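Sorry to interrupt, but I need a hand with the structure work. Could you write out one complete protein record for me, on any chain you like? Could you add the entry underneath, on a fresh line?
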Amino acid sequence: MARSASPDEATALFDEQFYLSRYPGVADAVKKGLFASGFQHYELFGEHERRVTSKETHDARRDLMLGFCSLGKNCEFGIAQRVFGAEPMDLLRWAFTPSDVLIRLLQVGFERIGDPNEMDVYPTPAGEYHIRHKGYQFAWHAWVNVGETTPEQIKDREVKRLPFLARKLMDDLAQGTRIFVVTQLDMTPDAAMEILTAMHAYGRPTLMYATQGGPPRVVRESDYLFHATIPKFADEAAVPATLPSIDWLAVCEHAQAVRESGAG
């Protein structure tokens, strides 16, 4: 798993042209004379905000986030990956999966996950299509707005997509190189262990369960179970606008360090 650049390294790698291109608002502020340069903005604000300073920093953060796999609950971690340029093809990245549903999926090997008779495509009040699997009782984003295509076309796409991604997820579980992530406000160690037990039918992957409250950090609770804390999760009604992306980056950096060191 790639190591993300430290703040000192990010400063050393600072690329003025890259920074202004990536952050047009900063470039506009420099043109107006509010900052002498992009680097001045970074020193005053950008370093604290963990802004990307160069292509090398961007690539390191992207590669770090690709080393994690969301097992659902909601789309918060998937959006955090997107913020840092990581777009892994993961089955449950955009899904709403309660713990009991996740355990059942793992126990039955995602059997009939692509059955078209079990899928219901429906519009949300926000004008986006969601898909619901009636057999397993979970839903996920289609990332298609009403009017852009038809429910039948979305279903045809999912019938092909889901079995492929299910096989990929089982392969990832067997290889055990990525860290798997579940988020829940008040998940207990026992509940997390139930999920990990189901995961270990495939190999010896590591599960990181994240709960709300406390600084962004990670503690190793057992050989394959990590507990992460986030000060505050995103508002489920407005995840992109309220996403604590910097906290998620810090958690992933700490998880990587904990895994590599073998320490808690």
Summary: The chain has two domains: 7-57, 67-261.
